Amino acid sequence: MSNPSLLILAGDGIGPEVMDEVKKIITWFGDKRDVNIDVSEDLVGGAAYDAHGTPLHDDTMAKAQEADAVLLGAVGGPKYDVLDFSVKPERGLLRLRKEMDLFSNLRPAQCFDALADFSSLKKDIVAGLDIMIVRELTSGIYFGEPRGIETIDNERVGINTQRYTESEIARVARSAFELARKRDNRVCSMEKANVMESGILWQTVVNEVHQAEYSDVELSHMYADNGAMQLVRNPKQFDVIVTDNLFGDILSDAAAMLTGSLGMLPSASLGAPMANGRPKAMYEPVHGSAPDIAGQGKANPIACVLSFAMALRYSFDQGAEADRLEAAVEAVLASGARTADLLAAEGETPISTSEMGDAIVAALDASL
Ligand code: IPM
Ligand code: MG
């Protein structure tokens, strides 16, 4: 059997430097665990715009469609703020999500014991936290038509449309219920059915899918604003949260901070199975391109490393090796190693991006 293929799109800002650390880890798995992955690389975001005048070249899109998985770093930066909306770095990312039809975005928020003190919330609220946000990623207000800025009655009007078909709701609901069955068997669905028709349909369809196919899973519903409050009040009440594209964007950032740092959080974006049985898949850290610290060796590579762990688990059938990599990260954190984003007190010395990568490789060696 041929090796699985991985297309790396490091992107902008801290993307390339955190990706360098993941490459060390990919090499380690090839050398020490015989997990061989054919890696290729290309450009996305501002880097692609600089080279080709577009944030995602058609050839890159075609490569992404063919790869067994895509690993993306980050896109965007102040340099590109002046660009027309249609060629902004973010459009490259959104095109990948849309054309690969990656409808189910898994954003785990797990609090590592070693970092429980670091969260802006009290330790007992976050210690042991392990929740999964399933965000719909290919529809809703991010893509709905009509959209644009128009002049109506002599003034400018900004327009975006929240739109969900029942099949779009049903498929992301199924993916949340499937995940829940492998976890604590509970799903909380979040919308704004009190003010939005699309929210009423969302709630209705989630209930229908639940009744017809997943009545063994415990299902609850919450308005998304209450959900945001509950996430910071008592996050451990949740197991799996399923929600739409925009609410998922916001709620997952809030959930990320519970764990201490955005620099810790990975994500997987999954679509339908391909001919080889693997799901269409893209993996990316939840953090952005952090232009303020780019190129200084300050970035935390762990979110990107853990995104690769998710690729091992969901794309490459290497669940045990994913566990090994996650345990290595946990061991490094337990040893007290911290990048600048994780420093609790002034006066502590952070380690650099590459030192963090090396420490994870050393912990992997120790796991053998
Ligand atoms: C995310 C990001 C993106 C989004 C941006 C970069 C387009 O915030 O993945 O959460 O809004 O989806
Ligand atoms: Mg976001």
What share of residues is helical? 40-55%
Low-pLDDT runs: none
Percent in strands:
15-25%
Strand order of the largest sheet: 2-1-3-12-11-4-5-10-8-9
Radius of gyration: 20 Å
Termini gap: 25 Å
**Mean pLDDT over the full residue set:** 96
**Structural class, judged by helices and strands?**
alpha/beta
**Main beta sheet:** 10 strands, mixed
How many strands appear in the DSSP assignment? Answer: 12
Order of helical and strand elements: EHEHHEHEHEEEHEHEHEHEEHHH
Shape descriptor reads: globular
Cofactors, ions and other ligands in the entry: 3-isopropylmalic acid, magnesium ion
The number of helical segments is 12
What would you say this structure looks like, in words?
It is a single chain. Helices cover 41% and strands 19% of the residues. It is of the alpha/beta class and 368 residues long. Helix 11 (319-334) packs across helix 12 (353-366). The longest helix is centred in the N-terminal third of the chain and has 19 residues, at 15-33. The structure holds 3-isopropylmalic acid and magnesium ion. The site of 3-isopropylmalic acid has 3 residues, from helix 4.
